[in-house]
Prior knowledge:
- There is one protein chain.
- Helices cover 34% and strands 32% of the residues.
- The chain contains 7 helices and 11 strands.
- The protein has helices at residues 22-32, 65-79, 115-120, 133-144, 167-171, 181-191, 213-230; strands at 15-19, 34-42, 45-52, 55-59, 84-93, 103-110, 126-128, 149-155, 174-178, 194-204, 209-210.
- The chain starts with 14 loop residues before the first strand and ends with a helix.
- Bound molecules: hypoxanthine (HPA).
- Hypoxanthine is lined by residues 90-92, 156, 159, 177-179, 202-203, 205.
- Hypoxanthine binds at residues 90-92, 156, 159, 177-179, 202-203, 205.
Amino acid sequence: MSIHIGAIRGEIAKTVLLPGDPLRAKYISDNFLEKSREVSNIRGIHFFTGKYKEKEVTIGASGMGIPSMGIYSYELYTEYEVDTIIRMGTCGSYRLEIGLQDLINVRLAASESTYARYAFGIEEESLSYQGDIYHKINTTAKSLGTEIRTLNVHTSDIFYRPDPEPVIAKKYACDVVEMETFGLFANAKYLKKNAASILSVTDILPTGEIMSAKDRERSLNQMITLSLESV
Ligand code: HPA
């Protein structure tokens, strides 16, 4: 057990998929995994371990924001010897050209957050994906015929922000915004682990357009299949 995860050692697979929303873990477990069982349920964050085409995977949740992602991914890497974490999340788009349902494999996450600096002395304000899982996702997408963009993301601590395109987003050419990837990449960089982040666009900031519940489910299924086929 770790402080925030109730599984015992060996109950968590080497590869973990982390959606933001805890309810998605059960959905993925029920619909995509075989022989899946719940291995942790602390604070409503359920973890399930099962098999996808004979490969063992664990699905959990990161919760919202860098602090929450920071806790779960750090404990998974350090207490359960996890090698690879794939975030599956949603993001807002700063640009009209990036539309609802577009899928993104994050190349680099830029953030105003001090998390990496104060946790690990990492001074960079932009961090790239870690290890080769990013490339596996791109090649898997190609073989599945799934279109995926490779873009830079702004990982923000602020959801409600009046500035339509913050300075850091411009500085690092970030086309989309979310709230967790920088924390995951910082932990993986420090611990020399693999990390990738797949996002689907659920809102367009300049127009206020948001994705319907039905389309959310469709793009979630695409992200799940792509992540599971990549591991
Ligand atoms: N801002 C920040 N995080 C998000 C957004 C957004 O517009 N959409 C999905 N995650």
